[in-house]
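Repro:
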Amino acid sequence: MEDKLKKIMASEEEEAFTIEFEGESYEFAKKELTWRQMNELLSRFLEVSKEGVKVHLEQFFEEAAIMTLTKAPWAQSDMKFVLRKLGPRFGAKLRLHLPGFESLLDGGDFFVEE
């Protein structure tokens, strides 16, 4: 693939990161989600009705973590269970490393046509 095109593609490289919490270090690795994967997440957890727009954040972040994390201090098979049991302080630190729906907005209005 041309170098120019590689620049716009989602990275296939894993990115390692560490979360420090109460004197302990927790090692993780993550992969970048593609534009399509992010759109799939949004379509599953974004509800548009005549009353307005509702984002099911708890489900969005859980699924984003499952799709993004390639290494965690727990088994991959336990991912959903552990994510549902994490304390809020640790979960907030983890969420800083995960994709958010606002990352697709890029400072613009998601619902405005160009």
